[in-house]
Amino acid sequence: MRKKSGQLKVLVIEDNPGDFILIEDYLSEEHTALEIQHAETFKIAKEFLSSANFDTILLDLSLPDIKNPEVLVKEILALSNGAPVVVLTGYTNKNYGMKTLSWGVSDYLLKDEINASNLSKSIHYSMERKKVQRQLYESEEKYRTLFDSSPLPMWVLDRNTLEFLNVNQAAIELYGYSREEFMQMTVRDLWVEDEESIEKTVENNLHDFFFIKVKHFTKNREMLYIEVQSNPILFGGREARVTLAHNITEKLKSEEKLRHSQQRFKALVQDGSDVISILDKNFHYAYISPSAKNILGVNPEQLQGSSAFQFIHREDRPYIEDKIKFIGKVKSYQLPPYRYIDGKGNWRWLETIISDLRDDPAVNGLVATSRDITRFKTQEKELRESLERYDIVAKATTDLITDYNIEKDTFQFSNAMYDIFGYNSEELDTSREWWKERLHPEDYQRVINATEEIFTSQKKLLNIEYRFKCADGNYKYILDRSYVITDAEGKPSRIIGSIQDITERRKYINAIERSNERLREIAWTQSHVVRAPLARIMGLIDLLKNQRNNLDNIEEIIDNILNSSEELDKVIRKITNKTEEEF
């Protein structure tokens, strides 16, 4: 028989010297390059294995220092450093020889049936088998490392039942399920919708690769968008699929944000209330947004290439030309309002901000953002005219004009504040409390009650007379006529008042009232006090006239007439004195 070349290093663990010699002869017949070591006990074998590596270990199950064959085999396997172990046994230990295969040995041989050929074949078969196992193990280790350390979620499914057979750490972290929970689930437990469509895809590609986009639920019911790539494999003898799950949720969110951003850009630039244009260095239109059609009534395509200055009112061009001299010195600046002719030949007021983006290759020009302020200009003109009218009225009238802001609790007074009450700007306070402190104590509650009706009864007009303290400490009578302005919700926001000094009028009215009171008193005196003595005089005179021949007491009657006349004279003088006091 042709001897096999190649170095073969063998450890023979055999306590029987005769059996060792026989094995050595068999090995020598088949191998030219042979290194063989002999260990008669487990102890010696352990020393050999701890100091050197062997291609093959031949192990006799009967050693003097270890009686339990299973313990012996497992100890040798633990020390073998991956070398294949071939068990040598007799007929009496044949059953143990078969058992050793389940313990991890590569082969077993009956000593009585050993010859050079089958011993060599067993050794080389065991070595090749060990080599294949080692390669398979390394391959599995690479797969396991790739599978477990992949940053993308991966799992293995039963191809028919879609049960989870294995999952990597990335899948556990993404979905929130533990490995044990995954092993109790099928991939259907992750599906959100379109179950029928997914089932059909899986069925149609049972033995093929497929790609599909699906929606999955995590353990806490968060929805994910997943791109699935699935390949058929054999896993532990079962038809399976290895699946790579790419989470594209953030990608889709980013795309959605980009889409919204583009929509916002379209809304702002194309459909917005501002006209966006790009001008070259000569102020010719390179681009103008479609919003120009709605705002200016001009077709944007017709403006491109034309000078922006030809549409600006000639009176306003000098102001614009003065401003554009700042181009290159500042990044952005605002032009003064100017008039721009629209598509119908009308002048529109525009407000424009210029941004110098000539160094930006995406723009390469001056970006002009223009806003139509025609309505604002009209309102500004009307307001200015209104203020002028107000100022004229305020100067023409002697009344004090007040404007009270309820929310801010601040008064504004016209210049008549000094003329009427003598307060200068340093003495004035704009709060309502300051105003209340200067009300006359006798009028205070009446004025406060009338003011509160503005809020409680939604009263719009206030017309009331009261006394107000001047800077010198005296009080003046005033007529306060105020109007309440409400906000959009109908709540009072401001009170506009016109205050008239009626002190002189009030003094005159008071004097008339006092005169009337005296006149009433005089009239009462005339009708009651004067009539009593006058009636007595008239009665006594009638008595003298008609009964003078029969009267014995004429002197007494004359005395009574004289007394009554004196009493009447006193009353008349009193009335005269009161009349003189009044006038």
Automatic annotation (TrEMBL):
The modification 4-aspartylphosphate is found at D60. Residues 9-126 form the Response regulatory domain. Residues 139-209, 261-325, 379-458 form the PAS domain. One of its GO terms (molecular function) is phosphorelay sensor kinase activity. Keywords: Coiled coil, Kinase, Phosphoprotein, Transferase. Gene3D superfamilies: 1.10.287.130, 3.40.50.2300, PAS domain. It catalyses: ATP + protein L-histidine = ADP + protein N-phospho-L-histidine. Residues 537-564 form a coiled coil. It comes from the Bacteria. InterPro entries: CheY-like_superfamily, HisK_dim/P_dom, HisK_dim/P_sf, PAC, PAS, PAS-assoc_C, PAS-like_dom_sf, PAS_fold_3. Its EC number is 2.7.13.3. Residues 334-385, 462-514 form the PAC domain. PROSITE patterns: PAC (PS50113), PAS (PS50112), RESPONSE_REGULATORY (PS50110). This is histidine kinase. It comes from Salegentibacter holothuriorum.
